[in-house]
Amino acid sequence: MEDPKVILEKRLLRDLGHDGAQRIALVYEGRREYRVYAPARAAGHPAQWYDQLAVHTSAGYGEVAFPEPDRSRIIEAVLRELDRSESEAVRAEVNALYRPAQICRQEHPQSVDGHAL
């Protein structure tokens, strides 16, 4: 079975100040869609709320909770995507610190377009 496709909606949870739930991700396996929710009052990284995360799937005109062990499998896919996207964000931030430059024969750094800095 291929890995599920994960669309992250929240990377960090913020206390919404009311009852309900925060949808943190949509997960697709084949034609099936799963919705991953955290409590409305949850704050911080979703992994800290692992036991309280809920997975729902569509059932006609509403949603039903998805039971174990499939619940854990879907949540693990979301947490893997969170880790992957965080490491990519860090890598992009580090890469943004550096720019290609030209150095003239007198060893003066030049910008990307060849003009003096």
Concise summary:
With 117 residues, the protein is an alpha+beta fold. Helices cover 23% and strands 30% of the residues. It has one helix at 70-96, and strands at residues 5-8, 21-29, 32-39, 54-59, 62-65, 102-103, 109-110.
How much helix, percentage-wise, in residues?
Answer: 10-25%
The total count of helices amounts to 1
H and E order:
EEEEEHEE
Helix/strand/pairing class, anyone?
alpha+beta
Low-confidence stretches: none
Q: What's the number of structural domains? A: 1
Average pLDDT: 82
Amount of beta strand: 25-35%
| Biggest pleated sheet | 5 strands, antiparallel
Principal-axes geometry comes out as elongated
Spatial separation of the terminal alpha carbons? 54 Å
Q: If you compute it from the alpha carbons, what radius of gyration comes out, rounded to the nearest whole angstrom?
A: 21 Å
Please provide the count of β strands: 7
Major sheet strand order: 1-2-3-4-5
Structural descriptors:
117 residues, alpha+beta, 5-stranded antiparallel β-sheet, two-stranded antiparallel sheet, 1 helix, elongated
What can you tell me about this protein's structure?
The chain has 117 residues and is an alpha+beta fold. It has one domain (5-110). Helix content is 23%, strand content 30%. It contains one helix and seven strands. It has one helix at residues 70-96; strands at residues 5-8, 21-29, 32-39, 54-59, 62-65, 102-103, 109-110. Strands 1-2-3-4-5 form a five-stranded antiparallel sheet, covered by helices on one side. Strand 2 (21-29) and strand 3 form a beta hairpin.
